[in-house]
Amino acid sequence: MRKLLLIILLYLFCNSLVVAQSHQYKGEQNKVALHLKKTIPLQENLQLLGKVNDFTVGSDGDIFVVDKQNATIIKYNTKGIQEQIIGKRGRGPFEYLNPSLISNRDDTLYLWDSKQLRFTAITKSGKHLLQLSDFSTAVADIRKYQNYVITYNTGGGHDSIITVYDLKNQKKIKEIGAKTNEHILLMVLKGSGALDIQNGELFYARADDPNLHKINLGDFSQDTYSVTIPDFSVDKVQGSARQIVNTDKKSCLITFRKTAGQWKYMP
User: Fold this and answer.
1) Of 65, 150, 198, 245, which has fewest CB within 10 angstroms of its CB?
2) Whole-model pTM above 0.90?
3) DSSP state of 89
4) How open is the CA angle 31-37-39, to the nearest 5 degrees?
5) What is the pLDDT of residues 114-173, one digit of tens each?
6) Hey, what domains does the chain have and what are their CATH numbers?
7) What are the CB-based long-range contacts (under 8 Å, 24+) for 81-87?
8) Distance between CA 71 and CA 68 in Å, rounded?
């Protein structure tokens, strides 16, 4: 059965960048026009496309799709034709069990395997450069900046939210942000939390508050931008969030009212 994945590339033109002088921001919902630039139907000339976990687009327009079902990365050209199958299923070096996140920077691909807790760097032609496996927790997002690998940690443990790894020495050098019970439970929801890097600064958002946290990746100084959302509230979680996530997640009910930005936990 032929499958078709429509990749929508969105183009947003920004006339200016406004830097806030105050650390107070009153949340407003503004409509932003997103213009469709191109639609690319992906072909299956080399391999049938299974479940797509993630994708990234290179500077030359090539598309790299993470295929969870086949545990591979499929390289497509700008016309949607498969050009190369990268990797294979396995537990050996540069093999994957559940490739889940992919990004590219400076023409290098960075891949996260959520089953083996492995971070892999490869060229766009499929040549393996580096693989790290010194990770103790699952991650919701991962970024590469200069010699650093930065993870947004998830799971039920009370470890840090952000971990910074030194690629040169292949070790952890910084743990940032403590998880609360409320944050741990809210990370069960898709779309909770956020991570990005701009101009040498790391920005992240916790799941249990609406504020924006900033880390200077030069000296690791930290700052917080307070975002005021009048209807945002978080109920206090009683008991161990780790136990709930690890043993009782299916029997608990989490309701999230998107319009009010509120949530409640009821065991």
Assistant:
1) 198
2) no
3) B
4) 115
5) 889 888 999 988 888 888 887 877 888 888 888 888 988 886 666 788 989 888 887 888
6) 1-10+33-133 (2.120.10.30)
7) 81/43, 81/45, 82/42, 82/43, 82/44, 82/45, 82/46, 82/47, 83/46, 84/46, 84/125, 84/126, 85/46, 85/47, 86/122, 86/126, 87/126
8) 5
